[in-house]
Amino acid sequence: MTIQTPVASKGCSDVPVLRERGQREVFCGLTGIVWLHRKMQDAFFLVVGSRTCAHLIQSAAGVMIFAEPRFATAIMEERDLAGLVDANDELDRVVARLLERRPDIKLLFLVGSCPSEVIKLDLSRAAARLSRSHAPAVRVLNYSGSGIETTFTQGEDACLASLVPELPDAAPNAGKSLIVVGALADVVEDQFRRLFDQLGIGPVSFLPPRRTSELPTVGPQTQYLLAQPFLGDTARALDERGAVRLHSNFPLGIEGTTNWLRAAADAWGVSEQHFNTVVQPPQERARKALDHHRERLADKSIFFFPDSQLEVPLARFVSRELGMRPIEIGTPYLHQQHLAAELPLLPQNALLSEGQDVEKQLDRCRAAKPDIVVCGLGLANPLEAEGMTTKWSIELLFTPIQGYEQAGDLAELFARPLVRRSRLEV
Question: What is the pLDDT of residues 405-418, one digit of tens each?
Fold first, then answer.
């Protein structure tokens, strides 16, 4: 397969965007804890919320009964909500008991929820108070995972944005450094680290790190690459610390990964010959992996409901590397600057939509009769009952999909529902 190169067409960079503001179908930001708690090995996420919050996290995580996860819920009872007890006293008691039981915790996140925000519980003041009480052994931060105004991936954005003020200042004479921003599976992080080493790019650090002792330094010589398109608040916080974002595609598929790596290579002055020498072997492996799925996926139509903010780079990947036909590319929020390299690579005949009015979008989807629909869990089962083939968008967050070695796995996530449908029809 030959990767397409940008042509004179501007893709979707200058097409009208359908902006809708109505009823939405999304998970809440608490869901991000499911992959964040696996990444930061000495951090703990304490949700200050209701039993519903606890059930959501437990069911979404699928934690085995004998496992001891790095998250929990400080459940707010009726008397907390009614103001019959001091919620801060209750929170202090729960945190003290947690830290006594889990001395391995070095970083504790207090995660706000819809209930805690409705009663105006100030978790920022609580985090500052608890940090003073438990310093220097434990650092306590807070962020909001509420689903009132956000989509579920913004939980990760809020978490990482809360970490940025904690990053140490780079030394005054420090040279250029690179931060890869966005939670990546350990295997993906290791693969990227090896590629950066082979390219001669470094020092490279990752945010979030695996351990809180590995927080990257930041300063005017710091450059960063976004590994996820939904990290607007985190990027803004890094910009305010003096770091500079490298503009690129996102590392999904061969094309996205190559352009992502090239952005860093150009900043470090890596020659084109050396760059090609390093990336050619993993590119070839990825091409062979994609060949396995392209025959099934080519010319299949696909409809993206807005859910994760991954929709735009995913649409670029499936259209340009798998030959699929995006009908509508819906995304909760269209960040024009962060997606500036993606939009020109989208097919011009696709409808690009931002936000959601779910009933209107369902009507468009039914009229289009796509071969596959990418959507949230709340819509997947009803659409399956209507005879449509769906892919859960949240699975694209739980699964390692970035980089060359995962390109085939990413393609398989779209092929699998079609395989399942074909078997059911026999």
Answer: 999 999 999 999 99
For Cα atoms 193, 196, 199, give the angle at the middle one, nearest 5 degrees.
150
The conformation of residue 219, written as its DSSP 8-state character, comes to S
Last residue of a domain, one of 129, 150, 171: 150
Task: Examine residue 13 and state whether it is found in any structural domain, yes or no.
Answer: no
Question: At 234, is the secondary structure helix, strand, or coil?
Answer: helix
pLDDT in tens, 258-302: 999 999 999 999 999 999 999 999 999 999 999 989 999 999 999
DSSP secondary structure of 338-378: TTTTTGGGS-TTSEEEEEE-HHHHHHHHHHH--SEEEE-HH
Number of folded domains in the chain?
Answer: 2
Task: Report pLDDT for 7.
Answer: 40
Q: Residue 262, CB half-sphere, CA atoms under 13 Å: how many?
A: 16
Torsion angle of the four alpha carbons 38, 39, 42, 43, in this order, in degrees rounded to the nearest 10: -80
Q: What is the per-residue pLDDT across 145-159, written as a single tens digit (0 to 9) for each?
A: 887 666 889 999 999
User: Please, are residues 167 and 216 in contact by the beta-carbon 8 Å criterion?
Assistant: yes
- In DSSP terms, which residues pair with 313 in a beta bridge? none
Q: Which domain holds residue 51?
A: 29-150
pLDDT of residue 81: 54
Question: Residue 220 and residue 177: Cα distance in Å, rounded?
Answer: 10
Q: How far is CA 267 from CA 224, 237, 245, in A?
A: 11, 21, 11
Enumerate the β-bridge partners of residue 339. none
- Examine residue 45 and state whether it is found in any structural domain, yes or no: yes
Full DSSP string of 37-103? HHH-TTEEEEEEE-HHHHHHHHHHHT--TT---SEEEEE--HHHHTTSS-HHHHHHHHHHHHHHH-T
DSSP 105-144: --EEEEEE-HHHHHTT--HHHHHHHHHHHHTTT-EEEEEE
CB atoms under 10 Å from CB of 385, counted, come to 8
Average pLDDT, stretch 205-213? 95
Residue 193 lies in a domain: no
Q: CA-CA-CA-CA torsion for 288, 293, 298, 302, nearest 10 degrees? A: -130
pLDDT of residue 65: 46
Note the pLDDT tens digit of each residue in 213-247.
999 999 999 999 999 999 999 999 999 999 999 99
CA 298 to chain centroid: 26
Of 150, 182, 205, which one is at a domain's C-terminal end?
A: 150
CATH code, 363: 3.40.50.1980
Domain membership of residue 196 (yes or no) is no
